[in-house]
Amino acid sequence: MHDLIIIGAGPGGIALAAEASASGLDASQVLILEKGLTHNSAIRQLYPEQKLTTANYKGFAARCEGLLCVGDMTKPETLQFFDKVISDYRINIEFNAEVYGMCRVEDESGARFVIESSHGTFESKVLAVGIGIFGRPNKPKEYRLPPLKDKLLFDMTSHPIQNEDVLVVGGGDTATEYVQFLRKQGNRVTLSYRKADFTRINQQNHDALMAMEASSDVEILRSSNIKEIKDEAGRPLIIFAEEQYSPRIFDRVIFALGGTTPTNFLHTLGIAFNADGAVFDESGATNVAGVYLIGDLVVGKKGGSIITAFNSAVRAMRSICINDLPCEKQHAQDSS
Q1: Which of 23, 35, 83, 256 has an alpha carbon within 20 to 30 A of 192's alpha carbon?
Q2: Which of 4-18, 76-90, 137-151, 283-297 has the lowest mean pLDDT?
Q3: How far is CA 90 from the centre of its chain?
Q4: CB 184 within 8 A of CB 162
Q5: CATH number of the domain at 2-135+261-323, out of 3.40.190.10, 3.50.50.60, 1.10.10.10, 3.30.930.10?
Q6: CATH fit for domain 152-255, picks 3.40.30.10, 3.40.50.2300, 3.40.50.1110, 3.50.50.60
Q7: Which pLDDT belongs to residue 333?
Q8: 17 to each of 22, 23, 62, 102, 286, how far by Cα in Å?
Q9: Residue range 290-297: average pLDDT?
Q10: Handedness of CA 269, 274, 277, 280 (dihedral sign)
């Protein structure tokens, strides 16, 4: 059981872990789960090497409220800054840990959050979500998708899936990890991959997938390409381009083609939404006790800056210390 689990190792997530350490929380009880292979994927992907990472972005005042602060820096300088923060505050990050599902559990031992991920199951007293707003699911380009709501999915966080016939489309690590998770949930799983061999997955996932195929826990359709998907009485009918694969009906199809849908992480927890998006207060606290939003999620579609992400972490940590966890040290005060 962790005190605090943070989803996303961007500026907001790293800042919240640092603020937690400065507030006296045991560093070993704070964990960041990051689906990428390293921290700050958005900065690495979206910023040119020589372009300045500006502290004041899109008109947001560059006024730091807490522990961390940055000025205008190059992309390498910015990443080195975060490397140092992670080292200095002994921040624990599980990389390549994609979150599949989250739920709040309340029993005689109290309330806690259960987080299912590609690295196993974690439990936490407080949960903070710091995923970016840039993620979008990669959708098939070769065929059109019929309007089968809740039957054609692009991640595993939107709906509980148990005892169903499920087709997973893809051949990377995400696809193989989806297969493993779905089988554990009692589903009958088929994997469709356009190539004959799996060359993009790590050895652990490769061995697990081959073992599942050998034990008939998964059916693998190698060198298979979907030609069309039809609505068959509310269920997806899959028509393959290859003659050796007959048309088949599934309860659901999950496309593991890359990308994420950030709002699905929030819906699955029962977070309230309005016309503007998720509902939260000035600290990022949601209607679900113990769940906080940080980073771009509290700024909106216009996006924010590194400093707005830092400041969101300060406000969230202040509220966490007051309402959720016993902090041994006085939290950083607003500089105003």
Answers
A1: 35
A2: 137-151
A3: 22
A4: no
A5: 3.50.50.60
A6: 3.50.50.60
A7: 45
A8: 9, 10, 21, 20, 19
A9: 91
A10: negative
Euclidean distance between CA atoms 28 and 35, whole angstroms = 20
Contact 28, 2 (CB under 8 A): no
Characterize the bridge pairing of strands 152-153 and 252-255: parallel
How high is the pLDDT of residue 55? 59
Where exactly are the structural domains of the chain?
A: 2-135+261-323, 152-255
Reduce the DSSP state of residue 237 to 3 states and report it: strand
Residue for token pair 């509290």: 298
Q: In a 3-state reduction of DSSP, which class is residue 13?
A: helix
User: Which residues, in sequence order, are CB contacts of 46 under 8 Å at separation 6+?
Assistant: 134
Residues in CB range of 175: below 8 A, 6 or more apart: 168, 169, 191, 193, 256
Q: What is the mean pLDDT of the chain?
A: 86
H helix intervals, the chain:
11-22, 41-46, 75-88, 173-184, 203-214, 262-267, 306-323
